[in-house]
Amino acid sequence: MYQSIHRLYHHHCLSKIFQPVNLKPKDSNVKKDEPMSLSQKLLVETGIISLRSNGMFALLPLGQRILKKLMMIIDEEMISVSAQRLTLPLLTSADLWKITGRWNSTGQELLSLQDRHNREYVLSPTHEEAITSLLRDVYPLSFRQLPLKLYQITSKFRDEMKPRFGLIRCREFVMKDLYTFDESEAKAIETYSEICNAYDKIFQRIGVPFIKVAGDCGNIGGSFSHEYHYQAVIGEDTLLVCHGCQEATNAQLLSDSVNAVCSKCGSDMATITGIEVGHTFLLGTKYSEPLGGCYQNKQGKPEAAHMGCYGVGLTRVMAAVVEVLTTSDNIIWPWEIAPFKVCIIGPKEGSLEAGVTRWVNHLAKVLSSLPGYEDDIVVDDRHRLTIGKRVLEARRTGYPYIVVVGKKAQEDVPMFELIHTTTDESCYLSHHMLITHM
Ligand code: ATP
Ligand code: MG
Ligand code: MG
Ligand code: MG
Fold this sequence. Notes:
Layout: H1 2-8, E1 12-13, H2 38-45, E2 49-53, E3 56-59, H3 61-80, E4 84-85, E5 91-93, H4 94-100, H5 102-105, E6 112-114, E7 120-123, H6 128-138, E8 148-157, E9 172-182, H7 185-206, E10 211-214, E11 224-231, E12 237-242, E13 248-250, E14 269-284, H8 288-291, E15 294-296, E16 302-304, E17 306-313, H9 314-325, E18 342-345, H10 354-368, E19 377-380, H11 387-397, E20 401-404, E21 415-420, E22 425-430, H12 431-437
Parallel strand pairs: 1-19, 4-8, 18-19, 18-20
Antiparallel strand pairs: 2-3, 5-7, 6-7, 8-9, 9-17, 10-11, 11-14, 12-13, 12-14, 14-17, 15-16, 20-21, 21-22
Helix pairs in contact: 2-9, 3-7
């Protein structure tokens, strides 16, 4: 009982949070003249991420909070389609990649290494081989246990030729990858559309407008795929969106993307640029055939499973939402993944009477007990700084709400300033009004 009450009233103090702003890497591998995107600049300047080496970033505590919120959305939507979470090893045996042919076809993006016994491994950029070999090894898995849906949320490594734009194209990044196994192509297509619905929900919950396009199967292969994109100027993919029926496709799929007309309705297509944040593939038996990823069919015989794979780049989403929503030097976070929902700022040390400061702790307690705000309140308790300086920093980091406990908190009816940073509106509210507003 005590523990649950304690948890309910927990809030965080900014003075204790490790948030080294604008940290510059000393690593000699870091290229100094790389182009920076807005999200990279702001996430580094606000101490959310830190560049550690070429194409590799540390997610600092605030970044970790954003990642955790993305993971929670994904976990909930995966539970709703009965997918189960697991973790595969970081290294995958090179033999598996040789069997599927991707050892050669992937090119230099694939980083390989040898252990002390001279065994070769790849630093996994994706896990189709690894997961299919797991199915192979658990045989006989009965047809009754299908569809099987397994996913993980782990770091991937790709030795990108041009790592750039911070978390948008880095070498090490966090991806959620789901793999599905079915009895037949028809059932795999059913699973595919079920997962696509779950993906729609994930992106709806993140809350940033997205475009779903027919995608390029690339080196992963398979029969068809869809990509989820955020429209952004720095997007590296060219997308064609139909003026008539809104059908959209990645230009990579078309041989002649200038003169493109919609294959569905014949209207002209508009060209936009997008950041790919998610990708779904219907794989067929491309991996299960060569690797022996079989289930036991009704006749008791092994049969290659029909697979699908589905990726979301969590760290890329973190940066891409900033690219889409932010128009100035103040980050705008989607409500659901903001590092904290409310930042409370009290008076500068010694500037106001002691009673006013008590409001800071009181509001922190009350707000963190409201549903949806638990663990989401931070107090900027660096009381040696002026209110103005702390408000500027809070705006820059992008907490959706800032509550200022200032001069007006001394009045007979204490009033608090509520700033809604997303809309840039602010107003003074009484204690009661503030709580009902949230
Ligand atoms: P891109 O076309 O941008 O190179 P991809 O098509 O190679 O991406 P997939 O293999 O489809 O990527 O991987 C699934 C998801 O992983 C992507 O939709 C993206 O969100 C994320 N992702 C891929 N490469 C990177 C990277 N270098 N840095 C960050 N995230 C990445
Ligand atoms: Mg790629
Ligand atoms: Mg792509
Ligand atoms: Mg892709």
